[in-house]
Amino acid sequence: MIGFSAGVATVLILGQLGDLTGFDSSYSNKVAQAVDLLFNLDQIDVPSLLTGLATIGVIILLGRTKLRNYALVIALLLASVALLVLGLDSFEPV
User: Fold this and answer.
1) What pLDDT is attached to residue 92?
2) How far is CA 77 from CA 43, 60, 74, 88, 90, in A?
């Protein structure tokens, strides 16, 4: 059961790398996409990566406060507002 859970977690994480980095791989396999990303680090969209990492950071920080139940919603709202304020247009709306 531990191996199955670890495999599912790995596939979930690998599946989000493209969205986090803004990299669009031509492969359909998640492992191949991750390897393709490693070979094409110059094609990472830096604003997408920084926004994603900042959002993850806010989630982790708020997870340690009384607002932990709302951490995901608050982090997504803050990221959305920041993108509107900064006028970054390289993002696709979610």
Assistant:
1) 57
2) 27, 15, 5, 15, 18
Cα end-to-end span (Å), the chain: 33
The widest CA-to-CA distance across the chain, in whole angstroms, is 46
Token reading at 87: 């006028």
pLDDT for 45 equals 87
Interatomic CA distance for residues 16 and 20, integer angstroms: 6
Model pLDDT for residues 17-60, shown as the tens digit of each residue: 988 898 888 888 888 999 999 999 999 988 889 888 999 999 99
- Whether the Cβ atoms of residue 33 and residue 21 lie closer than 8 Å to each other: no
CB 49 within 8 A of CB 27: no
Q: 48: how many CB neighbours lie within 10 A of its CB?
A: 19
Where would I find the beta strands (DSSP E) of 9-68? none
